[in-house]
From TrEMBL:
Pfam families: ABC_tran (PF00005). One of its GO terms (molecular function) is ATP binding. Residues 4-235 form the ABC transporter domain. Keywords: ATP-binding, Nucleotide-binding, Transport. Belongs to the ABC transporter superfamily. It comes from Shewanella loihica (strain ATCC BAA-1088 / PV-4). GO terms for biological process: transmembrane transport. InterPro entries: AAA+_ATPase, ABC_transporter-like_ATP-bd, ABC_transporter-like_CS, ABC_transpr_CbiO/EcfA_su, Metal_Ion_Import_ABC, P-loop_NTPase. The lineage of its organism: Bacteria, Pseudomonadati, Pseudomonadota, Gammaproteobacteria, Alteromonadales. GO terms for cellular component: membrane. This is ABC transporter-related protein.
Amino acid sequence: MVKIIANNIEMRFGSRLLYRFDRLSLAQHQTIHLQGDNGSGKTTLMKMLAGLQAPSSGEIHTEGFAPNPWWRRNPLLGKAVYLHQHPYLFDGSVAYNLNYVQPLCDMTEQEIASRTQTAIEMAQLGSLLNQRAASLSGGERQRLAIARAWIMRPRLLMLDEPTSNMDKLSQQLVLTMVSHLKQQGTGMLISSHQSCSLTGLCEQTWQIQAQAIQVSPSTLDERPFTPSQQELRYVTAN
């Protein structure tokens, strides 16, 4: 089982303290709802866990992942997929965006082709394959981004306000894709300042409040951290 663990984290922007906490972990087979007011630091926390932003102090490490190649300087990149509420899409067609991730998939060509076709059908993108991604509506862009992640079958997935700018049809299609990933064992952290169709899949809540993060129900592993040979350990604070 793969896991990302954050220990003794403090996050500041200048003199402003966003939050501090002793320990949080995101693992396969977990689905967690990340709650907090606008500006509370939900996106920042996701970016820290995905290796895209360093905390002001503290340590983040992973368990269960294969070592990175020597040229990848950030050990967290590629360990988890992070999707912003305004996802980055490549300058090309919908089909190009879906096919772009194929070299990153640890599957046979037949499995990738089958999974890509299934993603197209689940996200109802068949009629849009030749359309430029830049011309899609907000809901269509989200469906494309989640379909692209679905093809990769990530072990950990972080969804930042995934149902924003979505109509009911898009929300239902995304719910189906995310439910499939949950059944396949993908660990997920879903950010939303209010309940939505996806948060009903969650069995745990992280609430950012009063410069701290409260976990409910409490399932934290309270064992003291002792590095082992199976762990990839590193300090991410500047």
